From TrEMBL, chain A:
<feature type="domain" description="Heme-copper oxidase subunit III family profile">
    <location>
        <begin position="4"/>
        <end position="261"/>
    </location>
</feature>
<feature type="transmembrane region" description="Helical">
    <location>
        <begin position="159"/>
        <end position="179"/>
    </location>
</feature>
<dbReference type="InterPro" id="IPR035973">
    <property type="entry name" value="Cyt_c_oxidase_su3-like_sf"/>
</dbReference>
<dbReference type="GO" id="GO:0004129">
    <property type="term" value="F:cytochrome-c oxidase activity"/>
</dbReference>
<dbReference type="Pfam" id="PF00510">
    <property type="entry name" value="COX3"/>
</dbReference>
<feature type="transmembrane region" description="Helical">
    <location>
        <begin position="79"/>
        <end position="102"/>
    </location>
</feature>
<dbReference type="GO" id="GO:0005743">
    <property type="term" value="C:mitochondrial inner membrane"/>
</dbReference>
<keyword id="KW-0496">Mitochondrion</keyword>
<dbReference type="InterPro" id="IPR033945">
    <property type="entry name" value="Cyt_c_oxase_su3_dom"/>
</dbReference>
TrEMBL record, chain B:
<dbReference type="InterPro" id="IPR039297">
    <property type="entry name" value="COX7a"/>
</dbReference>
<comment type="similarity">
    <text>Belongs to the cytochrome c oxidase VIIa family.</text>
</comment>
<dbReference type="GO" id="GO:0045277">
    <property type="term" value="C:respiratory chain complex IV"/>
</dbReference>
<dbReference type="InterPro" id="IPR003177">
    <property type="entry name" value="Cytc_oxidase_su7a_met"/>
</dbReference>
<dbReference type="Pfam" id="PF02238">
    <property type="entry name" value="COX7a"/>
</dbReference>
<dbReference type="InterPro" id="IPR036539">
    <property type="entry name" value="Cyt_c_oxidase_su7a_sf"/>
</dbReference>
<comment type="pathway">
    <text>Energy metabolism; oxidative phosphorylation.</text>
</comment>
<keyword id="KW-0472">Membrane</keyword>
<feature type="transmembrane region" description="Helical">
    <location>
        <begin position="53"/>
        <end position="74"/>
    </location>
</feature>
């Protein structure tokens, strides 16, 4: 049996990059056919393929690490760099939407009445549900840190409890935000205010859902004894992502909800 | 009434903790043995029959999807409208 003379992971040949690429093709063409011809088949097929790809790809990574032991310290370090770079790219994604918001709100056009919020828009009260949402996410930042310390200390029950609490807080945020969206007195179609509000908070909400899912997977893995006190990078990556989601919300709250009202 | 609630709490606690203990034993070592078997099977198929089924379904959707995209793109590029 051949043995490698290095600490890195040469992965087995895998079909998931291909299926993932095809799913991206299907989703983008699917968007086009949905907009032009109102047929959602391609879009639905692409989304299904994307979900299948993600499930199997990440399942394989868990097998390679927890069951096959390929994730040496060097490999983990590389994953750390990767996650940091990915989150940085997401920061720039949000910078674009904040740029759009400040462009329109710092010098409001005459068509808006020369003021912000524009004439006719009743913004949400920042000290009602949005403030609760801020408290929920800040609390979830505390609970995820509690979970991390528990995992390091080998304290299984507190780790499971605090991680569960983090997930519940994430779900609570999503539920509250969904209710706010339903009850809001303005819509996406309400000029540049509606557009900047719903696109920025909407993409943030999507990231909350992604982060909550990532944390749920970590919770499931921890119940199955995948994490050790010294090796739990998947959880750390999820925690970093969650803190990023929290920070984006704080910027949204200060800029759009508070200053923007 | 409080005695009933307390009793119910005890039953629930015992049921949950005992079922949790039954279902969540540490099976990592068994998985490690399965996935470290020297049989040349790549990791995406190494789990067993369900892996192969899921793989075949995914690949079938990939091939059918790719073909369908080409069809839709050709249809969109060469419209057959009679006006």
């Amino acid at each position: 049996m051949a043995h490698q003379a290095h600490a890195y992971h040469m992965v087995d040949p895998s079909p998931w990059p291909l299926t993932g690429a095809i799913s991206a093709l299907l989703m983008t063409s699917g968007l086009a056919t949905t907009f032009h011809y109102k047929t959602t088949t391609l879009l639905f097929l692409g989304t299904t393929l994307l979900l299948l790809t993600m499930f199997q790809w990440w399942r394989d990574i868990i097998r390679e690490s927890t069951f096959q032991g390929h994730h040496t310290t060097s490999v983990q370090k590389g994953h750390g760099y990767g996650m940091v770079l990915f989150i940085t790219s997401e920061v720039f994604f949000f910078i674009g939407f904040f740029w759009a918001f400040y462009h329109s709100s710092l010098a409001p056009a005459i068509e808006l009445g020369g003021l912000w919020p524009p004439t006719g828009i009743t913004p949400l009260d920042p000290f009602e549900v949005p403030l609760l949402n801020t408290a929920v996410l800040l609390a979830s930042g505390v609970t995820v840190t509690w979970a991390h310390h528990s995992i390091i200390e080998g304290a299984r029950k507190p780790a499971l409890q605090s991680l569960t609490l983090t997930v519940l807080l994430g779900l609570y945020f999503t539920a509250l935000q969904a209710m706010e969206y339903y009850e809001a007195p303005f819509t996406l179609a309400d000029g540049v205010y509606g557009c900047t509000f719903f696109v920025a908070t909407g993409f943030h909400g999507l990231h909350v859902i992604i982060g909550t899912t990532f944390l749920m997977v970590c919770l499931l893995r921890h119940t199955h004894y995948h994490f050790t006190s010294k090796h739990h990078f998947g959880f750390e990556a999820a925690a970093w992502y969650w803190h990023f989601v929290d920070v984006v919300w704080l910027f949204l709250y200060i800029s759009i909800y508070w200053w923007g009202s | 009434m409080y005695r009933h609630i307390h009793a119910l709490q005890q039953v629930a606690r015992r049921t949950i903790s005992s079922s949790v203990r039954r279902q969540l034993d540490n099976k990592v070592q068994n998985k490690q043995k399965l996935f470290q078997e020297d049989n040349g099977i790549p990791v995406h198929l190494k789990g067993g029959v369900s892996d192969a089924l899921l793989y075949r379904t995914t690949m079938m959707l990939t091939v059918v999807g790719a073909g369908y995209v080409v069809y839709e793109l050709v249809k969109a590029a060469f419209p057959r409208n009679k006006t």
